[in-house]
Every structure is written in C-alpha cells, then in structure tokens.
Amino acid sequence: MNENAILIPLFVVVPLAGAFLIALLGRRFSFLPDLLGSLVTLVLLGLSLAAVRVVYFDSMLVYPLGGWKAPIGITLVMDGLTSFMLATTNVVAFSIAIYARDYMEGYTSKGMFYSLFLLMLAGMNGVIVAGDIFNLFVFLEIAAVSSYALVAFGTERHALEAAFKYAVMGTMGSLFILLGIVLLYGLTSTLNMADMSHMLSFKDDQNLILMVCVLFLMGFGLKSALVPFHAWLPDAHPSAPAPISAMLSGILIKSLGVYALVRIFFHVIGMTSTLSSILMFLGVLSMMVGVLLAIGQWDLKRLLAYHSISQVGYVVFAIGLGTPLGLMAGLFHLFNHSIFKSLLFLNSGAVEYATGTRDLKKMGGLQKKMPVTSGTCFVASLSIAGIPPFNGFWSKLIIIIAAVKAGHPIYAIWAVLASILTLASFMKVMKYAFLGELRNKWQEVKEVPVFMQGAMISLALICMLGGVLILSGVEDVFLKPAAMTLVEGFNYSGMVFRNQ
Q1: How far apart are CA 375 and CA 356, in angstroms?
Q2: d(CA 423, CA 294)
Q3: Which single residue of 58, 225, 301, 484 could bond 230 by disulfide (Cβ 3.0 to 4.6 Å)?
Q4: Where are any strands of DSSP class E within 70-210?
Q5: pTM to 2 decimals?
Q6: What is the pLDDT of residues 365-388, one digit of tens each?
Q7: Which residue has the higher pLDDT, 338 or 203?
Q8: How far apart are CA 320 and CA 327, in angstroms?
Q9: 142 phi and psi, to 5 degrees?
Q10: Contacts of 171 (CB under 8 A, 6+ apart)
C-alpha cells in the first residue's frame, strides 16, 4: 500500500470528528461551531488539493480498511475522478462554511446546523472515495438524511413540506438504488466494485443487467434531479437556508447523483452505446425543460433551482457522448456549475438577508446599496449563460464542439439554444433585482456582513479565472486525469487490485 493512501480516510474522519465535537461542545462554547466549521472545511480543502497532486504522480491509491484487502475487505479508492470530485466538493464547502458564519445567526441553532452540514459533507466525501458499492450506498444515505434535516432547518411550514416531499422522493430513489445493488450482488456474489466489474465480464445475463441499469437510472436520476425525476428539487432547494441551497445545488446532486451514476456505469457495468444514447437524451431533455421552466419564475431561488436541472443536463449530456473530449467537457462543466451555481444561491441568500424577500417583482435598484452582491451576481450570471471570458463559456464551448465532433450536431444546436434562453433568464434577474431605480422601501438596505461578502468574492474570482484552467495547463493536473479515468474504465478493476 502506498504511504500516501492514508489521506483517503481523512476525508470522512475529519468532518465526522468535527460534527461530533460541535454537537458535544457547541452549546457550552458558542464560538466553537463557527471555528470548527471553518477549520474543518479548510483542512478538507487542503487535503483535497494535496490529493490532486498525489494522484497526478501515483495514478491510483487504495486504502484497505483494517488491512483486509479487496475483495474480502472494505477498500477506499482514490483515482483521478475521485481527486477531481473531492477538490470540487471541498472548495465549495469551505466558501459556504465562511458564508454561514453570519447568515445562520438568524436561525435557531448554529451548532446543529454545522453538525448536520459536516455530517452531510462526510457522506458526500464517503460516496466519492468508496471502493465498494454497499458503502457507497451507506455514505449516500448519510448525506441524504442530513440534507433532509437541513432543508427543514428553518422549521417554517413551506420548509417542512418541502423537506417531507424531498425525503419521500429521495427514499424512493434510494430504494431503486438498493434494489439494483441487491440484484448485482446476487449475480456476482461480491460488493467490491473492482471485483464486481471483473465478475460481470464473465456473466451473460443481459436482461438482469438491463434491469439493474434501469433501476440505477431511476435512482441516481432522482438524486441528480434529471428530467423526468426532478419534481422534488424546485421545492426543496428554495426552502433551505441559502448555504444549504448552494450545497445542494452546487455539490450534492452531483456527488450523490451524477458522480455515483458515472462511476458505476463506466467502472462496474461498462458503458454501452445504448446507455450513452439514454444519457444524451436525458441530458438534452433536462437542459431544455429546466431552462423553459426557469424563465417564467419570479421567486429568485426557485428560478435558480430550475436552472440547476438545466445545467446538470449539460453535464450528463456531455458525459453521455463518451468521447475523451466530451468526458473532459462534462467534468469541466460540473466543476464550473458547482462554482457559479453555489455563488448564485449565496447571492440570492444575501438579497433575502438584506431585504427579506425573494420576489424579483418587489426588488429593484439594489446595486446602489449592495455593490458586492450585485457585482458577484453579475459575474455568476454571465458565467452560467456562457458569456466569454467566464468559466461557463469555456465548458459549454467544449461541450458543443465535442457534440459536433461526435456526430450529434442537432444536440449541439439544442445546447446553444438552452444557453441563449439562460442568458435571457438572467438578464431578467439583473434587471429586476439590481438595476433600475431604487425603491423607497429599500433606502435603508445595507450590504451583507464581511464574511458573506468574502465567500461570494472568492467564488466570483474562480468564475473569472476559469478560462485560465484551460489556457495555463492546469487541466493536465486537474481535469485530464479525471477524464482519462473514465476513458480507461475497463482498467479500473486491475488497477485497484494492483495498487492495494
């Protein structure tokens, strides 16, 4: 075992320890939730950047828990895709933890919030590093149950109703996933993903494998809010506190949905032309339905929630292309969307924090009173709309080029149309929220506190520098190893057994 593999369990142990200490001591020491929340996420950010560097040189790390090697023992695995997802998750988590320091003052128990937040983060990190499919499911449930509680954290009627709906739909998704796992276990007699992949190469029960694929598409489709499995998201995301809306939309639906689906399809079951076609179709359908539903919204957070459906569609479509360029474009857009969508939800939270409303019709002229929020929202709006030189432009451009090169020009046209409609939607946001004359009732409005500003500015800077990722060669360390992990999916099993 490589000595650097000790990094892997820390991504679960550190946030679990933080959640436990906050729950134990948070009431006694009022400063502890803020301190530990920020410190734990900062440590995880540092560990994730170290993981990117380590994987670049070592390709894959495997950590056998208790010294029991696969397929008998439980293993944690870190490859290019893992390090990419860990970095994406923990960059956003750190910014949100900083933002929540001031924002969550208006809620009942900041200690309980940070405990649930770190528990959710531990679950997401666990899903990303899990080397066996059952523990992937266990970590998925830890993150999901924590997110149900966080959606209801405001304890208002609409929040409780949305959390209940989210829990019911999420539980249905989990049941589909669990049934798929049961069928795979019955077929292969193993739960280790590398060993399961190896065993499936000797099996010829295509009908059972097809059934498993359908179950996973429904289960992980619900987790990632792909159309037509998206009904829970427009209620759940707006009802949650802004930091949790940012976490759910920016990270959770990708780590529990898109990442887990891609990991299983590419590395366990094996990607086929039929699965590729289904992912492309669902991606384009989500892309268009999401943006069309968003255009008519006047509730700012609900509008952003529908755009999450649309932008996840871009990611799934690009990955469905299955080409090296398409895979890199999809992962790049996954990272970019995590940044600019998290920023947009933090912007909406800042507006609601200052004005008490999310209704765009009741706003106007807030740029004069909230220049930082307005400026960062403008950057995020241009990013999500795909306007150069912001990060969303580069990933959308590569997705369109990849679609044309793969022989799908019609899909590329739909992607362009969805981007144009996204621009129109965010022109409405900027016009009604920040531009125009300042209404009399907003004369006393002030910019949000400094920690909230700092979190928004840091994410806005990443949006502005996103193109540098392509132009400076950073993608060789960050993006390409993740894409190549998917391209060489058939090597996953052998690499796990060689590196443990």
Answers
A1: 20
A2: 11
A3: 225
A4: 75-78
A5: 0.92
A6: 888 888 999 999 999 999 999 888
A7: 338
A8: 8
A9: -60, -45
A10: none
CA distance 295 to 304: 10
CB 264 within 8 A of CB 193: yes
pLDDT tops 70 at residue 155: no
What rounded mean pLDDT belongs to the chain? 88
Cis peptide before 228 (omega within 30 of 0): yes
**Any idea what DSSP says for residue 449?**
P
**What per-residue confidence (pLDDT) applies to 492?**
75
pLDDT of residue 99: 92
Distance CA 329, CA 341 (A): 17
What is the structure's pLDDT at 1? 60
- Asked whether 299 and 358 are in contact (CB, 8 A), the reply is yes
Measured between alpha carbons, how far is 94 from 89 in angstroms, rounded to an integer? 9
Residue 248 has pLDDT above 70, yes or no: yes
Which pLDDT value is given to residue 471?
61
Residue type, 377: C
Query: 66: Cβ–Cβ under 8 A, 6 or more apart, which residues?
Result: 73, 74
- The token duo for 356 is 């008490």
Looking at the predicted structure, is the pLDDT value of residue 355 above 90?
no
* Distance between CA atoms of residues 20 and 39, nearest Å: 14
Tell me: pLDDT of 2 over 70.
no
User: By three-state DSSP, how is residue 60 classified?
Assistant: coil
In 239-349, the DSSP E strands lie at: none
Which helix or strand (DSSP H or E) is residue 339 part of?
A: helix 324-355
Among residues 258, 403, 263, which one has the least CA distance to residue 334? 258
Cis peptide before 71 (omega within 30 of 0): yes
Structure tokens at 279: 């992912």
- Which residue bears the tokens 């919204």? 297
Q: Which uninterrupted H or E stretch holds 62?
A: strand 61-64
